[in-house]
Amino acid sequence: MTDAASGPLGLTIDPAASAPPFEQLRRQIVEAVTDGTLAPGTRMPTVRALAADLDLAVNTVAKAYKALEADGVLEGRGRSGTFVSATGDPATQQAQLAAIAFADRVHRLGLDDATALALVEAALRARP
């Protein structure tokens, strides 16, 4: 019996499982998004990189990514890569997108997480 292949993000594929590898991968990504392990805006590994890490065929990972994109869990952004989609109601989606943009900007400015969080907390306290 072969051990389960383990990759980034805690994803594992069990070759002895009854579910095919494509479905195991799809389910695990959905669960990680649902429980917050994969936050909206998280950049996913490339299809080739994830396939190599999990010892899967590239087409298997591509099929899982395509299904997740069709379900709105992931979104492809061309050459920029594949990212976890914003989820929830429209207001939550807009807030998640704003948070992603803020996090990207803070990172580019070289600020640490504690400073970024302090700025957000101050901004929330200052609103009327």
Tag the structure with descriptive keywords.
128 residues, mainly alpha, 2 domains, two-stranded antiparallel sheet, 5 helices, elongated
Plain-language structure description:
With 128 residues, this protein is mostly helical. The protein has two domains: 5-84, Arc Repressor Mutant, subunit A; 90-126. It is built from five helices and four strands. The strands form two sheets. It has a two-stranded antiparallel sheet. Strands 3-4 form a two-stranded antiparallel sheet. Strand 3 (74-76) and strand 4 (82-84) form a beta hairpin. The protein is elongated and about 55 Å long.
Termini separation: 62 Å
Number of helices: 5
Note poorly predicted spans. Answer: none
Give the helix level as a range of percent: 40-55%
Strand content: 5-15%
What spatial order of strands do you see in the largest sheet?
Answer: 1-2
CATH superfamily of the largest domain: Winged helix-like DNA-binding domain superfamily/Winged helix DNA-binding domain
What CATH calls the topology of the largest domain is Arc Repressor Mutant, subunit A
Main β-sheet: number of strands, strand sense, barrel status?
2 strands, antiparallel
Mean pLDDT: 88
| CATH class group of the largest domain | Mainly Alpha
Number of domains: 2
Let me know the number of strands. 4
SSE order, one letter for each helix or strand: EEHHHEEHH
Please describe the topology of this protein.
Elements: E1 5-6, E2 12-13, H1 21-34, H2 47-54, H3 58-70, E3 74-76, E4 82-84, H4 90-109, H5 113-126
Antiparallel strand pairs: 1-2, 3-4
